[in-house]
Amino acid sequence: MISHLFPKEERFDLISQINRASASISANLAEGSGRSSNFDQAHFTNMSYSTGLETIDHLNTALDMKYINEEKYTELRIKLDAILNKLNSLYKYQINNKETLKKKV
């Protein structure tokens, strides 16, 4: 958690946005996992990916405002980039997989 690095006046603004965006990554995946078609699942995977990009934007702002240093930013970007790469692979699999849960039921 990086929120302790931020000034108190940011606790309800940028920190809140970072927390909500990062939590939405997994929430979108969870919602999509309950969908029966691969295309519906892929839609929510794409939303997760987009929310990851939103999180990166918030981290860029935190870096620009000097709320976090370059080292912490790089550490978080490496982790987010790994997550985004996995989401991209999952999305491609979902789009290209012809065997859907709908067909199996």
TrEMBL record:
- Per the record, the domain of life is Bacteria
Q: Give the SUPFAM superfamilies listed for this entry.
A: IVS-encoded protein-like
Q: Which Gene3D superfamilies match?
A: 23S rRNA-intervening sequence
Q: What is this protein called?
A: Four helix bundle protein
Protein's organism = Flavobacterium xylosi
The organism's taxonomic lineage, starting at the top: Bacteria, Pseudomonadati, Bacteroidota, Flavobacteriia, Flavobacteriales
